């Protein structure tokens, strides 16, 4: 039996991951990562992508049969903002290649048709395509990491807005004069519920003199992570538990607003911090139930992402399939 | 020249308005209102609608020619929540006919095909069809009245969500533990920027002893309206001006969140309180510019509604046209 494949390319600030995803959807059969080395420029990263892609294709053909002609295209996912029409990077903090036409360069380097989308859209599409919200009416995806990104898929279509800037869900205001956010504003959801915000909140409370087992955290307070806070909470640390609960509640405030606006069938919470699990999801669900209208809350399933680690590769490949079949 | 028409029926808690709207879009040529008398039950209101419709049809035929067969259908708009699938009222505060199948009853009474939608969706569709956002890529409409309603149209399609509960934009949280909202929560946009909230805020500040020309408002403080506050602000009342500015700013906080999520081409602010104009729109636009991402803010035009008084009739007729041509 012969298969057809799409390459998924997930470009992060630190690593690039390339994988071979079956055209009909499924986990990647080969997936390899390498350093992005963004400071060397876009062409260097494209060369890395080409090398990884060659290896992925070889591995895939060796294990699954077929040949290079079975690879029909490539999807590339990047942190935004992006110029989707031009297929270019635009002032992305971790990819300092303003205006670099990443889509066309990858297409040239691989000799394959290429589509580009931002990582939030890719994550949402991946969860809709073969993940936690498979073929649902609609799915809102939030990714909790350094920041909070997201995307929305309705009727199998990625919602991009009038110029590709939609679903910056980390930057809805939940507290008018609240905590400062890296974006320069105050009170954004991201300032309360990203992995960064969870670590920062624990650090600030410890530095103000509150007691916690994290005071003696091996990595030092500066190296504190959301994961460490979550681990401490599980081990019985009261301060850590409060920080996680507060983040979950604030996440619920933001999700409730989005549920009242979008009335989605699924909210998928993905990204590293989603691994905290129930201590985060419990307060979040309670707050959504408290704040969202009953009809919308009843209709909405709030679930963790199911593609952890592979969401980028799968989602970008899925977006290629969706776009090329339009 | 012979025309074809759609009847638009706008059911409010106090009045019902029926008008004849050209099938191709345009202002109603005949528009008549009568009392809803909701407490007499749904059948009585449907009888009122039938009487008004007969009069509208007669007036239209007399002035424009043609005959009753030129009326191809009827659109009905109601405050939500509604069961759009069943075409029924569901626990709408001002229409106490829980479960009443308004769509089919109107269809039977008029002998015309009927579609039902909530007033926020109708307002948004009307502004997209022939109003302030004519045939735009996308339009988010907010209606500022007793509460804050809204709707969203993208690519000519009304966004309804998985079970018709979408775009309750008055109930996004802008302040976690903020002002109490009629919905039972705290910190909803509606608690800061509806016409009701504007009047309540001025009243509360005056009752706490602050000086204002509104202290001697002829209608008494209990009868204070957003219109009166706006008039006082225009006449130089400092407290009234501050109340309007604050409402505008808070509206901008909510609109900025929605712009970051939806990246719409237009935000249309309609409803009675939109008539306040620049004193409300100025602070709102400033706050959107401050809080929304540049790409999304640059792409978005924030404008007042252009169908005041007729939005309901036009929008409901438009939704009939849109639905029946699908």
Largest interface: A-B, 43 and 43 residues
What's the number of helices of chain A? 10
- Report mean pLDDT of chain A, rounded to a whole number: 94
Level-1 CATH class name of the largest domain in chain A: Alpha Beta
Number of structural units classed as domains of chain A = 2
What share of the residues of chain A does DSSP label as strand, in percent? 15-25%
Give the fraction of residues assigned to helices of chain A: 25-40%
Shape of chain A: globular
Based on CA atoms alone, the radius of gyration of chain A comes out at 20 Å
CATH H-level superfamily of the largest domain in chain A: ATPase, nucleotide binding domain
Order of helices and strands of chain A: EEEHEEEHEHEEEHHHHEHHEH
Tell me which CATH architecture of the largest domain in chain A applies here: 2-Layer Sandwich
Major sheet summary line of chain A: 5 strands, mixed
Quaternary assembly: homodimer
Write the CATH fold name of the largest domain in chain A. Answer: Nucleotidyltransferase, domain 5
The first-to-last residue Cα distance of chain A is: 27 Å
Q: Going across the biggest sheet of chain A, name each strand in turn.
A: 3-2-1-4-7
Counting DSSP E segments of at least 2 residues, the number of strands of chain A comes to: 12
SS-based class of chain A: alpha/beta
What would you say this structure looks like, in words?
The structure is a homodimer of 326-residue chains. Chain A folds into two domains: 5-126 and 309-324, ATPase, nucleotide binding domain (Nucleotidyltransferase, domain 5, 2-Layer Sandwich); 135-304, 2-Layer Sandwich (Nucleotidyltransferase, domain 5), CATH 3.30.420. The first copy, chain A, has 326 residues and is an alpha/beta fold. In chain A, a hairpin with a 4-residue loop joins strand 5 (82-83) and strand 6. The first copy, chain A, is 40% helix and 19% strand. In chain A, helix 5 runs antiparallel to helix 7 (238-262) and helix 7 (238-262) crosses helix 8. Chain A is globular, with a radius of gyration of 20 Å. Chain A contains ten helices and twelve strands. The A-B interface holds A 81, 90, 137-138, 160-169, 171-176, 178, 183, 185, 250, 253-254, 256-258, 260-265, 290-293, 295-296, 299-300 and B 81, 90, 137-138, 160-169, 171-176, 178, 183, 185, 250, 253-254, 256-258, 260-265, 290-293, 295-296, 299-300.
